């Protein structure tokens, strides 16, 4: 076993997923997965496609969606696909209208679509659009979509699953201001809304994932050698949490990390500028 594989086995123990129980739980339900054309969303689609659920897969790339639909349908799965750029309000509104008109209704929403960007603030002075696009995908789109489907989720006592990141619970890192702000915004919105939704019979699960080896992290060279969870592992972890009706899931080591973020904030904010000056001076 390689060093990274060993570390990953310690950091990300494989979840126990009762696939028979998952099939029984998902039978007859309609499930929406955003960001379904690659990464975690794609693996969730293949995993849930083995149940008797009716999947609705949403992403920008219709060619990828069609390939996934054909693969799942060839195994007897039921899949509909819808291509939409969630940054565009008109396309998001059209998707919402289409979902409301579907006779099958809607039972579970996996809010998985996301946009990541790593860029120093001083290199973003003429790139305000980076912040707009990141907020559009990671915050405004899921809020707008959920507001459109909440009446149906209430009627069917549905479930909202937010595929989030551990960064929403840890001290912010330099160069990730746009990404971390947008992910934290939706995480806070959903946690604030959850008691209201629970009172109306809508369940909410927040999944705080570590680094996952998806196409989204490929542009960051430093991540290629770091321990990371596989998207298949992440999909099974999320499915196990939904089956168990968990409110949150997170790596076992996140609580100590949160405590360290709280206690060590002063030291971090003192030391980080020195480290960045040294790095930028190299």
Automatic annotation (TrEMBL):
It comes from the Bacteria. Residues 29-215 form the Ketoreductase domain. The keyword Oxidoreductase applies. One of its GO terms (molecular function) is oxidoreductase activity. Keywords: Oxidoreductase. One of its GO terms (cellular component) is membrane. Signal peptide: none annotated. PANTHER family: DEHYDROGENASE/REDUCTASE SDR FAMILY MEMBER 7B (PTHR44196), DEHYDROGENASE_REDUCTASE SDR FAMILY MEMBER 7B (PTHR44196:SF1). Belongs to the short-chain dehydrogenases/reductases (SDR) family. This is SDR family NAD(P)-dependent oxidoreductase.
């Amino acid at each position: 076993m390689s060093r990274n594989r060993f570390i990953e086995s310690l950091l990300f123990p494989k979840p126990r997923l009762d696939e028979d129980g998952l099939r029984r739980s998902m039978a007859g339900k309609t499930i929406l997965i955003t960001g379904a054309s690659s990464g975690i969303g794609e693996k969730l689609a293949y995993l849930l496609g083995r149940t008797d659920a009716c999947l609705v897969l949403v992403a920008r790339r219709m060619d990828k969606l069609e390939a996934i639909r054909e693969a799942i349908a060839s195994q007897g799965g039921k899949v509909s696909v819808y291509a939409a750029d969630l940054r565009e309000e008109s396309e998001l509104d059209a998707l919402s209208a289409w979902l409301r008109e579907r006779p099958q209704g809607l039972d579970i929403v996996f809010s998985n679509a996301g946009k990541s960007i790593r860029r120093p603030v001083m290199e973003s002075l003429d790139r305000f659009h980076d912040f707009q696009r990141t907020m559009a995908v990671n915050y405004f789109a899921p809020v707008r979509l959920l507001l459109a489907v909440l009446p149906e989720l209430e009627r069917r006592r549905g479930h909202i699953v937010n595929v989030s990141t551990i960064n929403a619970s840890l001290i912010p890192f330099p160069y990730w201001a746009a990404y971390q702000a947008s992910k934290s915004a939706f995480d806070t919105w959903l946690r604030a809304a959850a008691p209201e939704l629970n009172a109306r019979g809508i369940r909410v699960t927040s999944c705080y994932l570590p680094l996952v080896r998806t196409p989204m992290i490929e542009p960051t060279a430093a991540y290629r050698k770091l321990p990371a969870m596989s998207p298949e592992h992440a999909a099974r972890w999320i499915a196990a949490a939904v089956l168990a009706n968990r409110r949150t899931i997170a790596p076992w080591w996140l609580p100590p990390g949160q405590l360290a973020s709280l206690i060590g904030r002063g030291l971090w904010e003192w030391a980080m500028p020195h480290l960045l000056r040294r790095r930028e001076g190299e």
